[in-house]
Amino acid sequence: MSGAVSGHLGPAATGRVIGAGSVREGTRPVALRWERVLVICALVAAALAVWLTLRADFLAHPGWLAVQKADFILGPIGVGLYWYHRRPHNRLGLLLIAYGLVSIPYVLESSSSPWLFTTGTMAEAALIPLSITLVLAFPSGRLEGLPERVIITGALLGYALPYFVWLLASPELIPRLSLSGCSGLCPDNPFAIWPTPSWYSWSVQYLRAALICVDVAAVIVVLSRFVNATPPRRRALAIGAPIALLYLIAQIIYQTNQVIDSGYAQPGVQNLAGWYQWTIAGARALPWYGFLFALIAAELYAGRVLRTLVRDASRRPSLGDLEGMLRRPLGDPGLRVGFRDPTTRGWVDADGGILAPSAAQRLTAFERDPSLQVAIVHDVQLSEDPELLETAAEVALLALEHAELEAAQKESLRELADSRARLTEASDRERRRLERDLHDGAQHRLTAVQAKLQSAIEKIDDERLAVELEGVSRDATAAVEELRTLSHGIYPTVLRSAGPAMALRSLAMTATIPIVVVDEGLGRSSSSVEAAIYFCCAEAIQNATKHAGEGATVTVTLGRDNDGTHFTIADDGVGMREPIAGSSGDGLVGMRDRIGAVGGELEIHSAAGRGTTVRGWIPASTLPAGAGGK
Asked: Which pTM does this prediction carry?
């Protein structure tokens, strides 16, 4: 995987997956060189095997044996290289490559030279134990316990050891693989230094009986491993193990029939034919192709898991829900996800608890960059399924990044809301100050001027001057009324003293169209909330006055419930031909800003001939402190 998660898992109890560039970039060209050399050698050896075997007229099945020998080289090496590329820390790929390299000397068994033929036949002594090792080492590439080591030791003592005895005591070394027999006498054994012992035929039976016991024990180990496996381990074994078991069972059947076939007791004679012989010949290649199918299936499954997790991640799960989302597709009920604690630099879960693996788990850390890190505590088997583990890490990193972005967005929105609230509050304070200054300053001065003018009119005898002073007094009275109206519009005194409902009723008394104010229990709130409600309603009333048309009426409804406060301004006027919600007029922008500043929302609906409705609400969870009372 590239981008968010790259690199590979190590075998240590605590791994760390970091960028591939920083880990493998320097070693990659060297790796490519030895891999190319290996591929060239395998191709040359396979071609030599086909050419040499087809020319060997002393072999019983030269054509099919040529195909088998080429496959013994190309199959394991090809599959092993693929495993190594996909899982470089898994030893199974190297074991497969080793099997293919050991098969190269096996090619010499097709030579008519006694020295080369005997050398090639001795290579058979390693192929069977190696095959059983591959089966028992799948899928990790390691022998996990004492039973596996005992079985491999038994294979070496029961199968490989007789070859070395025959090398020194048999006049001819007879191939034991099903297609490797000679049509007549095989080339002489130039390494024989002892006469053929009387127990030679019994040593052949010993080899077969030992191989049957070893195969049966291997079958039992593989089956018990599957039965007792955790879900991730059972999934890893699901394809490769059954195919490998077919090889073991075919070998058991073949060797059992060889033991009970009385004709086979004579050296150099291959009496058993039919499907047993060809079944085991084909079954010998099953392990490495089964492992190939298992790896391909694991990669396909990882792709399906990625699609599932990406779909689930689109629902924006919380960090606490992330573990449950990952456990099901990965088949690991004990999986946990952790994050770096900035204080202790340790790993903690979503609730702040310390993240530590149990004896049957491992902790693997992933990072996209030093500021974005996650750790996954998982079943040990998932270390052998890096595709799945890296898929989970990809989703976990995306979820963590999303959570950080969401937190940053919420913080920005909170700061924006706080800034809008401060600006609105400052504006309202300035309105109240202007209202007080006008009331206590200019309005009082004009009232005093009016009183002085009235006193002067009463004292003068000049009728013409008195008339002029009466006119000045009337102008002063008009100015006082205009100032009173202006100061009430800036911040009505009744809003501060009696709340939005009374303030809106006072406004309705001076409106030019009928306005009905319905108070459904709004009550009192903080000054900022009351100012937002009042001025939004006032702006909506003013718009209705201008645009609703002749004969229109306006109904203002105010209320409060458990969810918060709400208000509606609805008119039955002509409405708007264009959706008013998309308008960017200063009045509507101001209304939205006022409600948004106290955490509320506003929506406007209008249609031609159906009037206009403005709805606003301020959720209880976002009401500023003190919203419960003035």
From this structure: 0.62
